[in-house]
Amino acid sequence: MLRGRRAECRELDRLLETMHAGRSAVLVLRGEAGIGKTALLEYIGGHAEGCRVLHAVGVESEMELPFAGLHQLCAPLLGGLGRLPSPQREAPGRIVSSSASPC
Questions:
Q1: Is the pTM here over 0.70, yes or no?
Q2: What's 21-87 look like in SS3?
């Protein structure tokens, strides 16, 4: 347990319980630098048994690149596209082609 973060850890545990029950949930973690956001993310990542945990980091040099963060998250998953139903399998190609600028 993180020192002084019992309430936050309980909330993260509830989020994991919700997910394991087959329901979707969203977590927005925000705050000033140095308040422990990374420690909370490491906590939930360490307790996410049976889950694939993906990470992305903001890189200033990629700030102007559309979908750079999404690419960081999804690139490791591209090998599994063939297992998806047709509409979901085709969606990433449509996003790429619609965001490409004409030469």
A1: no
A2: CCCCCCCCCCCCCCCCHHHHHHHHHHHCCCCCCCCCCCCHHHCCCCCHHHHHHHHHHHHHHHHCCHH
